[in-house]
Amino acid sequence: MSKIEPGPPFTELFDLAAERLGGAVLYANDDFFAPKENLLKASKPVWIEDKYTDRGKWMDGWESRRRRTPGFDWCILKLGLPGLVRGFLVDTSYFTGNYPERCSVEGCAADVSVPLAQLTSDQHLWQAILPESALRGDTRNFLEVDSGLRATHLRFRIFPDGGVARLRVHGEVLPDWSRILAAQSEMDLAAVEHGTRAVTSSDRHYGNPNHLLLPGASTHMGDGWETKRRRGPGYDWCVLKLGAPGTIRRIEVQTTHYKGNFPESCSLETCHAPGITDDAFATALGVAGNAPTGAGVPLDWRELLPRSPVQADSRLLFEKELRAAGQATHVRFNIFPDGGVARLRLWGVTKGPA
Questions:
Q1: Nearest CA to 256 among 212, 196, 194?
Q2: For residue 280, what is the enclosing H or E element?
Q3: Distance (Å, rounded) from C-alpha 166 to C-alpha 36?
Q4: What ranges do the domains of the chain cover?
Q5: What fold characterizes domain 9-173?
Q6: What is the pTM of this model?
Q7: Contact 134/85 with Cβ under 8 angstroms?
Q8: Is domain 179-350 given the CATH code 2.60.120.260 in the classification?
Q9: What confidence tens digit (pLDDT) does each residue in 138-179 have?
Q10: Side-chain half-sphere of 178: how many Cα atoms within 13 Å?
């Protein structure tokens, strides 16, 4: 099996359009050859040599018919989580003579109940996120953007027609805190839907630490954070930035599917560093011997969960073990010495962003 080369840094961010987060393709002006819903499928695109439909060659993507008039083809997506888009992956795998020449993306911030008729109206206001950009066929096209728009919906345009296998929309989650706080008092402060994300980690060889924050149970061993086997002293760790400062009351560690590669134990520390940038935080954290040192700008780490045993393929709850640590903006989750964790839930309270 060939290994897919990693993408640029923005691909480490969440895919805001992922189906598992609630993303959906609401409408396409033309999907004659291949349905629009394929764009957001979680699986990698595939090629089946002799597979045809009554409309032509079966393709694992969204494909419009050959355009015979001026214009372009387009579709509208609802993001699973609202956010700030940092980059796109426009995957044209297996589209060799039928891929679009260019693409662009526009966005808008709309209410969750906005009718489709409004989004497809010529009067609806869309703002540019990605200008018209060249695409290559049978390629994973990475397109970085610098947009300040908080988007809930996107309009993806292809020029003039053709097929795209997959679309990924990587960015930072920007929740609607007024809606969240009105609906609940205690919540999972580590949930991606509340804006939490991984800042840095000691190792992510088998899985991104952002997987810890995904909703629902993990689906397989690759759907968690897993480090490579440690051959020297030390331990592995990841740092998470909470979507809003909060006080953690309970911790849940899930090792689902990790049976021969779960950590021996874990611990969790918190710090309160409002306003610090990710780069400044990573610099302040410092690393020596693959363990965080706090070198540089001092960070006031406080132990919330002392080192505690972990079990295989289990759901572990920690409450009585927790120590008073106050309000946190960041947490450092440590696993000893290495291994895999499926999900991390940090139940607590917040007043929303400062």
A1: 212
A2: helix 278-285
A3: 10
A4: 9-173, 179-350
A5: Jelly Rolls (2.60.120)
A6: 0.92
A7: no
A8: yes
A9: 999 999 999 999 999 999 999 999 999 999 999 999 999 999
A10: 0
